[in-house]
Design a protein that fits this description.
The protein starts with 6 loop residues before the first helix and ends with a helix. By secondary structure, it is an alpha+beta fold. A hairpin with a 5-residue loop joins strand 2 and strand 3. The chain folds into three domains: about 40 residues, no CATH class; about 120 residues, 2-Layer Sandwich (Alpha-Beta Plaits), CATH 3.30.70.1130; about 45 residues. A four-stranded antiparallel beta sheet has the order 2-3-1-4. Helices cover about 60% and strands about 10% of the residues. The protein is built from nine helices and four strands; from the N terminus they run ααβαααββαβααα.
């Protein structure tokens, strides 16, 4: 027996379980907000930019092949910046208690497409520490790259600074709550349809016609026993009153 669900039935199911859907959505948003505001540690971000070129004489002109070679070396610089050879010196200079692995996880090195500018981004629980680590990495790299690859043309374009009233980059409570709202709605609607699917009780004449494919010949009206009892008591009292009136 093939069953089909109309669009009207879908809306009826959602309307029937609307309170459940709203409750789940509100719980999801509230949970996300509480976790984001009170349990997650704020993370601040600071960045610095450096420009790395191969060593060249003053009278040497830039040419296409030189630029292409520098661009191809960018990935090598990115690896060197996050290598223990650089981070060990950074850790020692700043007297950091974190391990090299933990320090590495805080650092992101990237560059724009077809650009020789390297971005060093550091995330930390303290904005001052993030800026200090980023600037120290840039200065240490500038000194050590001369020994590692014989490159003495490194310029720090934009040192990391701590902004006034700097906002954390993580967590983002509003975004988290928006995602929780979408997830809560999806979960609520899914649960509503699941409960409707598991509910195999027959409630109306239409359910009989749909499930048994039989016509309904008649229905039995529901009797309100309480109302019927009140009506009978009132009728009996009326009779007694009328009987007393006649007897007198």
């Amino acid at each position: 027996m093939e069953e089909t669900i109309s669009l009207k039935e879908l809306f009826q199911t959602i309307r029937k379980r609307l309170s459940l859907i709203i409750l789940i959505t509100v719980i999801a948003i509230a949970t996300s907000g509480v976790i984001s505001y009170f349990f997650l540690t704020p993370i601040y971000q600071s960045s610095t930019q450096i420009l790395v070129n191969q060593a060249k004489s003053e009278d040497q002109m830039f040419n296409y092949n030189e630029v292409q070679t520098n661009l191809q070396l960018i990935n090598t610089y990115n690896v060197i910046i996050k290598s223990p050879a650089i981070l060990e010196l950074v850790k020692a200079e700043l007297e950091l208690e974190s391990t090299i692995k933990e320090l590495n996880e805080k650092i992101t090195v990237s560059n724009e497409q077809n650009s020789q500018v390297v971005n060093i981004t550091v995330e930390d629980e303290e904005p001052e520490d993030a800026a200090e680590i980023a600037n120290t990495i840039a200065s240490v790299f500038k000194e050590e790259i001369v020994k590692i690859m014989s490159i003495d043309n490194v310029n720090i374009l934009s040192p990391a600074v701590v902004l006034e009233n700097q906002a954390p980059v993580k967590p983002q409570p509003v975004l988290n709550m928006a995602i929780a709202m979408v997830v809560g709605l999806m979960a609520g609607v899914g649960l509503a349809f699941l409960l409707e699917y598991l509910d195999n009780t027959i409630k109306t004449e239409q359910d009989i016609e749909r499930l048994l494919e039989l016509p309904v010949l008649g229905t039995i009206a529901q009797i309100d026993l309480e109302a019927e009892g009140e009506y009978a008591a009132a009728k009996l009292a009326n009779r007694k009153v009328r009987g007393e009136t006649v007897g007198s």
